[in-house]
Structure to design on (484 residues):
């Protein structure tokens, strides 16, 4: 049985207790994961503190970013190992992970190293009563030991999206990967050692949330700042833990994202983009679309085309190049998604397509498979139209006016992302400006430039990361005033 250990102070470390990692493809146990106890989390935080005060803290920015370029290169050199590990844990199509997850894992180190190396500083000259003046300039120092708590949907991408900038800014980190996806964070430990990142800079503790490594880490007073991606409910619990010691948090949380399709859109592009935003990664993307609003004259044509797209997706295993959609992450998540499929029926939805479990070959029969699903006919208040499902499904509504669709799109406790499809430039600006979300795509979806701010409005997030916004979280700014 494959053993997935913790990575503490540059060493792979076993725990007294292990838990099973099961394959989403067939529910078979694929690894034993070592669950860090309180003592091991203490050791990881202590190792991170020592590295901060030792070798890592003493490096110049130039030397530090060179090491991080090395990490990016080494991920690319060991690309296939990361790909296999990520697809084994998640069941996602290799074609997807090859183009999104693993390249972004490397890019998150390279791009934030570039940003940190090139960021300018503030400088103000001031006059003083004695006429001699003073100079002010701001410096950035690391915040210290950063705790990173991660979800399972894009494991390497989302962990390195935080590890990259945190390390580039000179911090040391303790990562708690999702219990569902322990492998790539652990493999990254080998990379850190092989490129010469000092011991204790990067640590990984495995386990669950409450009364396990997640809670031990976020409650730990040796952790100076906590960055989290996951469900809104969990983010709220982490915020409470961080209040003890008044420690800063960055929270990237859930969404119930709208797509707004105007009748003047490029139809094929809108279908292609909406297909990706609903079904990519089996619908397990926080930025994905679960509510689709289509201007009435286009409604029936759009529903028919999305149905055809959904039915043409091949449900299959990661290494089949024709696979368009894999399984959900786990049996537990499958049960949750299927409970929403049932709720849609109970609430009287019209099932355009899907709504159940596909028939799979016998060796895959126990996997976390569900059908891509589209509903129409429900009101805005139905549970499947208000609550985040995080599965390959959406509800499509008709709308009649711009004002109406903006109001309905904003009628949610979430505010992560939206996409707007129109060929009218003025309308694009107007609607994008009024949508209550951290991110609005016009005529696209998941186009990411890592220099831009990323995060959620309302209950989808607290704070922004990306570009200099990451630097705001991962550094302490200090103003130095020199009297001349
Ligand atoms: P989750 O909140 O269940 O778990 C996330 C992580 O938190 C896991 O590592 C888990 O072990 C840990 N955790 C759980 N309870 C904890 C506690 N009390 N204290 C400390 N740690 C705890 O989320 P998930 O199911 O892994 O991921 C899916 C969710 O993540 C969805 O809601 C999705 O929208 C959200 N998400 C958001 C973004 C974003 O950028 N906004 C990105 C990806 C996923
Ligand atoms: O692209 C990113 O940086 C990012 N944080 C994506 C989040 C996807 C959510 O599932």
């Amino acid at each position: 049985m494959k053993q997935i250990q913790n990575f503490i102070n540059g060493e792979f470390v076993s725990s007294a207790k292990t838990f099973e990692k099961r394959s989403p493809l067939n529910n078979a146990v694929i690894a034993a994961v070592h669950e860090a106890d309180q003592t091991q989390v203490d050791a990881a935080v202590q190792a991170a503190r020592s590295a901060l005060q030792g070798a890592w803290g003493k490096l110049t920015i130039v030397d530090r970013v060179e090491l991080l370029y090395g990490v990016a290169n080494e991920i690319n050199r060991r690309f296939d190992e990361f790909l296999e590990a990520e697809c084994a844990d998640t069941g996602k199509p290799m074609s997807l992970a090859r183009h999104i997850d693993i390249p972004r894992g490397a890019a998150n180190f390279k791009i934030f190293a570039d940003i940190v190396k090139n960021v300018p500083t503030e400088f103000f000259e001031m006059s003083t009563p004695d006429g001699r003046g003073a100079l002010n300039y701001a410096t950035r120092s690391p915040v210290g030991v950063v705790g990173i708590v991660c979800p399972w949907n894009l494991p390497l991408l989302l962990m390195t999206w935080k590890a990259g900038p945190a390390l580039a800014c000179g911090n040391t980190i303790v990562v708690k990967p999702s219990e569902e996806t322990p492998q790539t964070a652990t493999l990254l430990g080998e990379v850190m050692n092989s490129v010469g990142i000092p011991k204790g800079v990067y640590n990984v503790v495995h386990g669950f949330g409450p009364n396990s490594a997640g809670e031990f880490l976020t409650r730990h007073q040796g952790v100076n700042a906590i960055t989290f991606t996951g469900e809104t409910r969990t983010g709220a619990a982490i915020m409470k833990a961080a209040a003890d010691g008044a420690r800063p948090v960055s929270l990237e949380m859930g969404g119930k994202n709208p797509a707004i399709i105007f009748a003047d859109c490029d139809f094929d592009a809108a279908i292609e983009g909406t297909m990706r935003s609903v079904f990519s990664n089996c619908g397990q993307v926080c930025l994905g679309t679960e509510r689709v609003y289509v201007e009435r004259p286009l409604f029936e044509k759009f529903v028919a085309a999305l149905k055809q797209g959904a039915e043409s997706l091949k449900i299959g295993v990661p290494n089949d190049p024709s696979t368009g959609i894999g399984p959900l992450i786990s049996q537990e998540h499958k049960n949750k998604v299927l409970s929403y499929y049932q709720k849609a029926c109970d609430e009287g939805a019209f099932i355009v397509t899907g709504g159940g479990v596909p028939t799979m070959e016998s060796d895959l029969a126990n996997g976390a498979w569900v059908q891509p699903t589209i509903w129409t006919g429900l009101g805005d208040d139905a549970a499947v139209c208000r609550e985040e499902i995080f599965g390959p499904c959406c509800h499509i509504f008709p709308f009649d006016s711009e004002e109406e669709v903006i109001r309905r799109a904003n009628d949610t406790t979430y505010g992560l992302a939206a996409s707007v499809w129109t060929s009218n430039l003025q309308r694009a600006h107007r609607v994008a400006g009024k949508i209550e979300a951290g991110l609005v795509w016009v005529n696209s979806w998941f186009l990411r430039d890592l220099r831009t701010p990323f995060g959620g409005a309302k209950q989808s997030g607290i704070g922004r990361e990306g570009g200099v916004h990451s630097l705001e979280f991962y550094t302490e700014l200090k103003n130095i005033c020199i009297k001349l």
